[in-house]
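In response to the reviewer comment on reproducibility (Comment 2.3), we provide here a single inverse folding case reported in full, input and output, so that an independent group could reproduce the run without further information from us. The structure tokens appear first.
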């Protein structure tokens, strides 16, 4: 717990440090600098000089939005600079935020044209991040020492033996990945990509590593709709040893309902092979429907709902249940951005509850609640990486004895979006 508190304090100090530098309003001078750099980028044909001018414009517009995130015109010019540099993920996000403001119809029409161009030309996408990650309950342990079992003499209490207390630890996390889309025709792309993550803790017992890849076509159905069918493969390692392999298919679709509101859907099915735990082998899958809405130039809201299932070899490990989440990000003055997300997942298991020590031998039922809060300062950039402090509270309630838990996690992460 002491390490957790120290990480939180350190993260807040790193995020707050940039605020002091913005004591006076420099909006006019910075906007002029940005527009001059953007105009110069339009005029040059040399790619290196053009990118340098665009970087200068981006830095100026970003500096304004640190204190004045509500300025729609500045956000529009920032989006244009990202568009010219072909950083389409960032450009799209800012264009959508602009449309959440009061813009003339001609400007809105021009933004829709930009969005259409970016959707058609999308090729490379990559991300990378690193974090210091303390966890108050690495083993997701209940800590309860007494359970009740039904015997010929009635229901009697039994004391659990061994080290069953929650174990805390300080970990290091790395993650990254990328994707390339090869154009096969005007409306058809071939997607190929991979992702990896590493989470290590002292001693190695709770280390978690994963590697995944996907390949398949992406179809641009019309000006606002697209779909992809991907073959997927992934492997997970626990404590340095391979644990689970999955091979399957994933269907993805996205529909732009308005320039500010998009809906997306995903359905997947895979074959899970678990080493040294073949009772968990079998098909698994999920389906999900979600939406993202640029509610205001400074506010984005999103959420999803879905269903997941598992058909393991042993009946009492077969499960299914709904899940849902809702989140929002808010850009504030002084460069701060706040994020809040709440998630709920319910999982029901089949068969008698004997294997899970449930009361009255009823089938096991879990409810997991997750609440996360994040904060970062848009003015803080370290070698191109932005620090972000995230706090996560997770609780699982269940009728399976000694399988409920409470868990607090924190991450001081450094994230770069390419």
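Designed residues, in position order:
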């Amino acid at each position: 717990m002491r390490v957790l508190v120290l990480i939180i304090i350190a993260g807040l100090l790193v995020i707050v440090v940039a605020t002091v530098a913005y004591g006076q309003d420099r909006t006019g001078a910075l906007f002029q600098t940005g527009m001059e750099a953007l105009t110069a980028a339009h005029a040059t044909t040399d790619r290196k000089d053009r990118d340098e001018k665009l970087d200068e414009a981006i830095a100026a517009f970003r500096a304004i939005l640190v204190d004045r995130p509500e300025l729609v015109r500045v956000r529009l010019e920032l989006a244009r600079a990202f568009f010219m540099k072909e950083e389409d993920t960032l450009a799209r996000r800012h264009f959508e935020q602009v449309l959440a403001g009061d813009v003339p119809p001609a400007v809105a029409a021009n933004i829709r044209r930009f969005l259409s161009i970016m959707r058609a030309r999308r090729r490379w996408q990559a991300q990378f991040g690193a974090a210091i990650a303390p966890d108050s309950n690495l083993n997701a342990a209940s800590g309860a020492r007494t359970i009740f079992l039904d015997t010929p003499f009635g229901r009697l209490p039994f004391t659990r033996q061994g080290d069953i207390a929650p174990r805390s630890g300080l970990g290091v996390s790395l993650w990254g990945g990328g994707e390339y889309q090869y154009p096969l025709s005007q409306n058809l792309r071939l997607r190929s990509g991979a992702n990896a993550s590493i989470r290590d803790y002292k001693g190695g017992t709770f280390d978690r590593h994963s590697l995944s890849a996907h390949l398949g076509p992406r179809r641009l159905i019309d000006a606002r709709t697209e779909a992809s069918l991907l073959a997927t493969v992934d492997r997970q390692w626990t404590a340095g040893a391979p644990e689970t392999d999955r091979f399957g298919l994933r269907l993805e679709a996205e529909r732009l309902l308005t320039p500010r509101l998009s809906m997306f859907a995903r359905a997947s099915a895979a074959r899970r092979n678990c080493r040294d735990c073949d009772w968990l082998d079998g098909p698994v899958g999920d389906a999900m429907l979600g939406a993202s809405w640029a509610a205001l130039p400074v506010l984005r809201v999103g959420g999803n709902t879905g269903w997941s299932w598992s058909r393991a070899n042993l009946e009492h490990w077969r499960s299914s249940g709904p899940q849902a989440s809702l989140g929002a990000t808010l850009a504030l003055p002084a460069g701060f951005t706040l994020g809040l997300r709440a998630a709920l997942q319910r999982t029901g298991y089949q068969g008698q509850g004997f294997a899970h020590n449930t009361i009255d031998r009823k089938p096991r039922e879990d409810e997991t609640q997750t609440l996360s809060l994040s904060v970062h300062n848009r003015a803080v950039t370290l070698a191109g990486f932005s620090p972000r402090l995230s706090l996560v509270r997770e609780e699982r309630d269940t009728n399976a004895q000694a399988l409920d838990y409470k868990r607090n996690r924190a991450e001081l992460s450094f994230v770069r979006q390419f």
